[in-house]
Amino acid sequence: KASPGKGTDMAGIVHRYHRFGGRGYRQRVYVERAQPLERYTTEELYARFRFGNADIKYIADLVRPKLQRRTRRSHSLSVEQQVLIGLLDKSTVSDVVKAVSIALDSLVNQFVSFPNDVQIAQTKHKFFTLGNMPNTVGVIDCTHVHIQAPHEGDWEYINRKGRRSINIQLVGDADLIITNCVVKWPGSVHDARILRESALYRELQTNRPDGIILGDSAYPLLPWLITPFLAASTPAQARFNTAHCKTRCATERLNGILKRRFASCNIILACIVLHNIATRRNVPLCDDVYDFLWIKVIQILLTSFEQHKLKV
């Protein structure tokens, strides 16, 4: 004997069959993705993405081993599309952002390195041309990148201006190439401590470089790190400070260009790699009128500090 509820269940099944059973299989329709490298001129690519056609292809080739998809199933993004994902496809942005950032981070050792013996002589000459400061192989400074601080230890990230930030140590050359970076300290940490705790400090204390690095008065005076006179009491000291300032201003220009080119540096290592690529390839800085476009790209390409593990 059938249970009281079985007839009701069967009626529901029949109802659903008549309602939905006549529907055939609907083939999924894929919209052709935008191809910005084909769509835009070189000038438009510079304006929208801060890199030209050849530069974008170069970057794509660098990260291809990390980003190349093994299948075209679901019309997966090409490497070029992933690199340019910022303006094109927000629906896949979380996975793509992570993949692109990790791929760029893996290139740090390739694009960020201290001058070797062959490069040092040329580096010294270029620095001397800047400010008549002899024997200079680098300039050092720290710069703050503002972040949304983690939930724990929030106070550690509040810098002297009362804003939450990461304090980044950068060493640059006369061409504004970043040759060393430390990206892990909260904004409250002093520049001198970041230097003392760095691998660069340990290396240069043990193996003196063939030249000097210039730093401001926040740093200690060391055999390989030269700071200005706090109070120049003689004409010679005043001339030294002038030459020191003219040469060391390269690091201030470097910080300014890095932040202008990448208005939001939440994934800092990726920005540093891209900056060095752009500088070495003579990629121009576009007019400020296009800044809102680049900010949009960066906001999508870069995740917050909480979502990415910062490395030295």
TrEMBL record:
GO cellular component, one term: nucleus
Ubl conjugation is among the record's keywords: no
Signal peptide: none
Cofactor(s) required, per the database record: a divalent metal cation
GO molecular function, one term: metal ion binding
Subcellular localization, as worded in the UniProt entry: Nucleus
InterPro entries, per the entry: HARBI1-like, HARBI1_dom
Keyword flag Nucleus: yes
Keywords: Hydrolase, Metal-binding, Nuclease, Nucleus
Domain DDE Tnp4: 140-265
Sequence similarity: Belongs to the HARBI1 family.
UniProt-recorded name of the protein: DDE Tnp4 domain-containing protein
